[in-house]
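[recover] target loaded
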């Protein structure tokens, strides 16, 4: 995406999300313009009711009543038409605005899902949640709502009413213009102040959202370490900052608006005084004065709305800039735009040609200048089961993250099915892998749905088969509602072994080319470990399997073990061969109980 400058137009940024709703927006604007005409016409009707009806000495009593009644009917028709037309336009506009925010939200969500893992080291889930459902979106909608409905009708009403005021009485019009100039000057200062306060409030709201989301995600740790009071105190501090900035912003906005309101009332009082003098000494009719005051009230209301619109725009622009700061974050794993390879076709060609399933060629990679791999080489064959072992930080987990392209290599290349992984779409590449992490995430919902999400179109038979391979039935059959049992966020009401088996079933159902078990048994009891190991050994017979192992007892039956140290493979072979090397690294790991 082309990087946008901070001062780029609000509408330049929003138009891609609005353009499909152009007909609805045009209809809404037309409705608003017609409503503006009705608003401006209403004071004219009042003038005729007073001057041509009530104050008209040429008409007899009943004639006055009939004339006034007729004009009142006209007034009601105009008012009802105004309300109904506004309602129709408002309904269409709401569909357009909600639709544009839907587009922006989905674009934002899609983008953050595609950003590389480095991004999430500096931006929390709470901050992203606030961008999608917090005040930035609310402020954007409020501003657009004003622009597409309020402003069009106000423009028409303003200029028609202003023209009428000049026609009614030039002296009163000059007083009105002087009032509006002073109001505009007051608002200029207020707009600058509110822009700063709005930015501060959004920042404090984002901090509170970030802390809340992070704390809720780690609620098990909060309770485990009995730090509820500490986390509550921290949250109160975050809320306190948000509270103070919210109160300051609201008070300042009210105070600045009050200044304008007071000036409006002073101007109105002066018009009343000068209008009374004009009626007595300058021949201005009572109807004209009524109409003038009514039109003046509309003009000042419009002016105040326009002045406040600047504040609304400042809040909306602040929110949109925050959203675009993330939308403009370049993905660290950019998609190739042409000559994209097909994973299935490449696999067939690769197997026919005898190429390895996975191959690292002179790969170099670092986390924030902390070197992990340098000129790293290795390969894994089709149908082979390979265990990666070594101490923490030796590069085992980085291996799996790189092969699934959660990060991009700095130098060299990684080939899957004989092709550079950068030649595949990341989605196609990743679904060809099934990963079972050490702490699999379980979504709120049924056990069945948690497994099915890997491949929503899968048949019931395929889902049940995946459950059987993963030994899910061993515990599901003992639950009251079986696989329809609802589990909470994170699956906290399940044991570690149960979560692992659900994760294995989920991975198997995706029908991947390669299965990766990332420390899948390191936190399990012996019974759960044996159940998971049984599933892993079943899958070794039909898949290419990579096991990142902490417990070395679980990898006795793999085809090959690669021992990592400081980003290099220092040993490789079968379990028995490596265990027999007394001075070998693998034997050392065995002696230390790993």
């Amino acid at each position: 995406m082309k990087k946008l400058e901070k001062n780029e137009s609000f509408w330049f940024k929003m138009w891609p999300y609005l353009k499909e709703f152009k007909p609805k927006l045009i209809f809404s604007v037309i409705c608003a313009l017609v409503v503006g005409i009705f608003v401006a016409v209403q004071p004219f009707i009042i003038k005729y009711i007073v001057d041509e009806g009530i104050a008209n000495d040429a008409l007899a009593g009943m004639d006055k009543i009939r004339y006034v009644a007729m004009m009142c009917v006209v007034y009601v028709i105009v008012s009802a038409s105004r309300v109904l037309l506004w309602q129709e336009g408002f309904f269409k506009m709401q569909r357009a605005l909600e639709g544009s925010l839907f587009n922006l939200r989905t674009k934002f969500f899609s983008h953050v899902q595609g950003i590389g893992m480095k991004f999430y080291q500096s931006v929390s889930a709470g901050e992203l949640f606030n961008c999608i459902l917090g005040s930035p979106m609310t402020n954007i909608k409020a501003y657009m709502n004003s622009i597409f409905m309020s402003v069009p009708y106000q423009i028409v009403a303003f200029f028609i009413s202003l023209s009428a005021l000049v026609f009614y009485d030039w002296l009163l019009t000059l007083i009105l213009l002087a009032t509006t100039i002073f109001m505009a000057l007051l608002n200029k200062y207020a707009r600058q102040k509110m822009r700063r306060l709005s930015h501060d409030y959004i920042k404090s709201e984002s901090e509170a959202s970030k802390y809340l989301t992070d704390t809720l995600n780690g609620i098990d740790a909060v309770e485990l370490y009995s730090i509820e009071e500490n986390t509550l105190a921290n949250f109160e501090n975050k809320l306190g900052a948000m509270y103070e900035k919210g109160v300051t912003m609201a008070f300042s906005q009210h105070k600045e608006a009050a200044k304008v309101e007071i000036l409006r009332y002073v101007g109105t009082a002066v018009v009343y005084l000068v209008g009374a003098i004009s009626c007595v000494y300058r021949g201005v009719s009572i109807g004209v004065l009524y109409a003038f005051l009514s039109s003046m009230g509309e003009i000042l209301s419009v002016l105040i709305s326009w002045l406040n619109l600047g504040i609304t725009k400042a809040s909306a622009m602040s929110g949109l800039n925050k959203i675009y700061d993330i939308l403009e974050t370049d993905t660290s794993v950019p998609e190739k735009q042409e000559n994209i390879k097909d994973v299935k076709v490449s696999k067939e060609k690769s197997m026919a040609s005898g190429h390895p399933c996975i191959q690292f060629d002179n790969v170099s990679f670092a986390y924030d200048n902390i070197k992990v791999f340098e000129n790293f080489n290795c390969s894994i064959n089709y149908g082979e089961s390979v265990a990666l072992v070594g101490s923490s930080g030796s590069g085992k987990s980085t291996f799996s993250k790189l092969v699934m392209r959660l990060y991009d290599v700095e130098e060299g290349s990684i080939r899957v099915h004989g092709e550079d992984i950068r030649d595949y779409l990341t989605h196609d590449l990743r679904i060809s892998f099934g990963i079972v992490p050490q702490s699999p995430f379980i979504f709120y919902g049924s056990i069945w749905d948690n497994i099915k999400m890997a491949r929503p179109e899968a048949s019931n038979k395929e889902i049940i088969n995946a459950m059987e391979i993963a030994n899910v039935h061993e515990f599901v059959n003992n639950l009251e509602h079986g696989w329809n049992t609802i589990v909470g966020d994170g699956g906290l009401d399940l044991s570690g072994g149960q979560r692992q088996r659900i994760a294995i079933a989920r991975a198997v159902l995706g029908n991947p080319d390669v299965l990766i078990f990332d420390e899948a048994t390191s936190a399990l009891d012996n019974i759960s470990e044996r159940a998971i190991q049984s599933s892993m050994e079943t899958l070794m017979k039909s898949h290419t399997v990579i096991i990142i192992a902490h417990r070395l007892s679980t990898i006795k039956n793999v085809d090959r073990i690669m021992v990592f140290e400081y980003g290099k493979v220092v040993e490789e072979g079968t379990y028995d061969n490596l265990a027999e090397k007394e001075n070998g690294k693998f034997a050392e790991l065995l002696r230390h109980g790993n």
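[recover] notes: The first strand starts at residue 358 and ends at 367.
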